[in-house]
């Protein structure tokens, strides 16, 4: 899983500016105003072959007892609990403050890996200018300038060093190609743990008629008909406004990480409640992460014919963007419909890791263009010349040609349908990328 880095410090030391640098984005609002950030803010970053998650937090006052600062402190404590490494940000120009001492005392008691960073240190070449920060007792002080991008790469290396992340070759060697990671996701109390217990034939996981019983993403090895799996029971994802407990917020992070690292997601829906907005949100996140997906409607035995018809209609409307996924109606408690479910899981994994040859893709592309040409844009019509595979899990097809920026979304869906039919891509998203060839005469002198 991706390591998690939390940015902690008093207000207006440049945490959000550093967050934007680490994530190469502008997702965090930045202004010369203390206390602008209040909630936790998550972002993805990458340096070299290593990816990581960054959490931006508001100004931290560990001893706050009331008002908005107490709520901000709760958010920061939760971010620290989620993090693998804490990056403690201080202001090199403003100097050391009593609040910095309070934060340092809190972090020392936790004993979690911590990197002390002096931000706004541009132009400070003398070491004595940062000497006061050694009073915090957190070891070496590393000067950076988030606004100017100075020292950021070294900072990431320092933050990731305590985690002993494997090299790229070691990571590839550690991946067991024969094991399929299957994450069971859904809202609270839809029967995820019950389903895994039914597969295993034992009470391996706590299954209780109370939403939120599962707190962490639990991995269980499993083998069926010669196929090896890692079953991942995730915590139920509910609407953000309904998440109150700090430990439950931590569970949400672990669930999202489990979805990103698995091969196939089994999206479980409660037949007694139908397809809710939250089911659609979870499905959207699975689609965005590019995971293969199978949809299963649990507790099918507990609804009558009228309710079954309503559920099927709600699936057609609210989950229309998952038309490529197989749909099953099951009862985990009574072991009904589980055999065909496994067949769809294996089919989805096979489709997600399908290898598509360049000659076949190019032939399908040219046949599609001959059958229906792309829409003309002004004086020019897009020219689609050849295609090749650009990745797996999810499959990516890269199409080369001229003026491809004018290819419409409708035509991309037309091409996607042709590719899906040829390679039987059931249960996996398919991404099509257009790459326009450069005009060799553009830079020529007239």
From TrEMBL:
<feature type="binding site">
    <location>
        <begin position="186"/>
        <end position="193"/>
    </location>
    <ligand>
        <name>GTP 2</name>
    </ligand>
</feature>
<keyword id="KW-0690">Ribosome biogenesis</keyword>
<feature type="domain" description="EngA-type G">
    <location>
        <begin position="3"/>
        <end position="167"/>
    </location>
</feature>
<dbReference type="Pfam" id="PF14714">
    <property type="entry name" value="KH_dom-like"/>
</dbReference>
<protein>
    <recommendedName>
        <fullName>GTPase Der</fullName>
    </recommendedName>
</protein>
<feature type="binding site">
    <location>
        <begin position="56"/>
        <end position="60"/>
    </location>
    <ligand>
        <name>GTP 1</name>
    </ligand>
</feature>
<feature type="binding site">
    <location>
        <begin position="298"/>
        <end position="301"/>
    </location>
    <ligand>
        <name>GTP 2</name>
    </ligand>
</feature>
<dbReference type="InterPro" id="IPR031166">
    <property type="entry name" value="G_ENGA"/>
</dbReference>
<feature type="binding site">
    <location>
        <begin position="233"/>
        <end position="237"/>
    </location>
    <ligand>
        <name>GTP 2</name>
    </ligand>
</feature>
<dbReference type="GO" id="GO:0043022">
    <property type="term" value="F:ribosome binding"/>
</dbReference>
<keyword id="KW-0547">Nucleotide-binding</keyword>
<comment type="function">
    <text>GTPase that plays an essential role in the late steps of ribosome biogenesis.</text>
</comment>
<dbReference type="InterPro" id="IPR006073">
    <property type="entry name" value="GTP-bd"/>
</dbReference>
<keyword id="KW-0342">GTP-binding</keyword>
<dbReference type="GO" id="GO:0005525">
    <property type="term" value="F:GTP binding"/>
</dbReference>
<comment type="subunit">
    <text>Associates with the 50S ribosomal subunit.</text>
</comment>
<feature type="domain" description="EngA-type G">
    <location>
        <begin position="180"/>
        <end position="353"/>
    </location>
</feature>
<keyword id="KW-0677">Repeat</keyword>
<dbReference type="InterPro" id="IPR027417">
    <property type="entry name" value="P-loop_NTPase"/>
</dbReference>
<feature type="binding site">
    <location>
        <begin position="119"/>
        <end position="122"/>
    </location>
    <ligand>
        <name>GTP 1</name>
    </ligand>
</feature>
<dbReference type="InterPro" id="IPR015946">
    <property type="entry name" value="KH_dom-like_a/b"/>
</dbReference>
<comment type="similarity">
    <text>Belongs to the TRAFAC class TrmE-Era-EngA-EngB-Septin-like GTPase superfamily. EngA (Der) GTPase family.</text>
</comment>
<dbReference type="Pfam" id="PF01926">
    <property type="entry name" value="MMR_HSR1"/>
</dbReference>
<dbReference type="GO" id="GO:0042254">
    <property type="term" value="P:ribosome biogenesis"/>
</dbReference>
<dbReference type="InterPro" id="IPR016484">
    <property type="entry name" value="GTPase_Der"/>
</dbReference>
<dbReference type="InterPro" id="IPR005225">
    <property type="entry name" value="Small_GTP-bd"/>
</dbReference>
<dbReference type="InterPro" id="IPR032859">
    <property type="entry name" value="KH_dom-like"/>
</dbReference>
<feature type="binding site">
    <location>
        <begin position="9"/>
        <end position="16"/>
    </location>
    <ligand>
        <name>GTP 1</name>
    </ligand>
</feature>
């Amino acid at each position: 899983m991706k390591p998690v880095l939390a940015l902690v410090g008093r207000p207006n030391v440049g945490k959000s500016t550093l967050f934007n640098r680490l994530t190469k984005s502008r997702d965090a609002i930045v202004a010369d105003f203390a206390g602008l950030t209040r909630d936790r803010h998550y972002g993805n970053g990458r340096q070299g072959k290593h990816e990581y998650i960054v959490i931006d937090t508001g100004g931290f006052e560990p001893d706050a007892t009331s008002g908005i600062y107490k709520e901000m402190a709760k958010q920061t404590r939760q971010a620290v609990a989620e993090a693998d490494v804490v990056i403690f940000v201080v202001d090199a120009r403003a100097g050391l403050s009593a609040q910095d001492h309070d934060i340092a005392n809190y972090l020392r008691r936790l004993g979690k890996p911590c990197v002390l960073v002096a931000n706004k240190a541009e132009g400070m070449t003398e070491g004595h200018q940062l000497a006061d920060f050694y009073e915090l007792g957190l070891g070496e002080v590393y000067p950076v300038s988030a606004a100017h991008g100075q020292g950021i790469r070294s900072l990431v290396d320092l933050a990731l060093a305590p985690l002993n992340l494997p090299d790229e070759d070691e990571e590839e060697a550690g991946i067991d190609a024969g094991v399929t990671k299957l994450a069971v996701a859904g809202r609270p109390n839809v029967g995820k743990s019950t389903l895994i217990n039914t597969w295993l034939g034992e009470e391996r996981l706590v299954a209780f008629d109370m939403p939120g019983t599962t707190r962490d993403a639990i991995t269980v090895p499993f083998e069926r008909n010669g196929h090896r799996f890692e079953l991942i029971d995730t915590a139920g994802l509910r609407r953000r406004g309904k998440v109150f407990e700090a430990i439950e917020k931590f569970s949400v992070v672990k669930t999202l990480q489990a979805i990103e690292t698995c091969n196939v997601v089994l999206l479980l829906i409660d037949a007694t409640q139908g397809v809710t907005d939250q089911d659609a949100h979870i499905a959207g996140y699975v689609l965005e992460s590019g995971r293969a997906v199978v949809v299963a409607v649990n507790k099918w035995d507990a609804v009558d014919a009228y309710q079954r018809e309503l559920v099927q209609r709600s699936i057609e409307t609210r989950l229309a963007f998952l038309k490529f996924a197989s749909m099953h109606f099951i009862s985990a408690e009574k072991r009904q419909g589980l055999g065909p479910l496994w067949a769809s899981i294996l089919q989805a994994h096979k489709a997600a890791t399908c290898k598509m040859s360049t000659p076949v893709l190019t032939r399908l592309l040219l046949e599609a263009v001959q059958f229906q040409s792309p829409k003309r844009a002004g004086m020019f019509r897009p020219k689609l010349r050849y295609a090749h595979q650009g990745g797996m899990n999810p499959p990516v097809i890269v199409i080369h040609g001229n003026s491809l920026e004018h290819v419409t979304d409708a035509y991309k869906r037309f091409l996607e349908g042709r590719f899906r039919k040829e390679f039987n891509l059931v249960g996996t998203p398919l991404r099509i990328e257009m790459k326009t060839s450069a005009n060799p005469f553009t830079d020529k002198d007239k």
